[in-house]
Amino acid sequence: MACNAPNFQLELMIDDPVVRESFQKLQQWLCDDANGLTAVIKDLISATSTPGFTWGNGGNQPPGKYLLNDNVPSNDVGRVIPLELGAIARISIAQKNATNAKFTVVEHDGSLSGAVDVTTVSMGGVKQKVFDFIGAGIPVTPGRQLGVRVDSVAAFSPDVGLTLIGEL
Asked: How much is the pTM?
């Protein structure tokens, strides 16, 4: 069975008749909805993600301390949000010791006046943890800066990674 949809080819070389029939049904469904599938793929591609931002600092980081990005405190100069309709999709954190440290992502304009706490995550007594924000994610404002602050208890040598989704 060949699909006549443009730029769509799928050939089946399966001997088992039950498996062949299942794949033929799948192929027909894909072929029938090739335009819809193409639209979904384009939407997925346009929802790009950044390679990620990171913040960290060696040694004991007390509550209230802002982590560094490229040796600059992230409350002074943060990572600029480069995406339209941007949102936080994932936060990944590693620290040298298992603690109950909390980390807050802060959005600002280069100073803490007008700063907004975007979200806070808790380590819950582990050394590393990944927080996924399924669906639309946590919205952030294009052109503003992001920083990360240690909250509640100290963290030892933390490294925080953040992945954004949105449109370029």
From this structure: 0.71
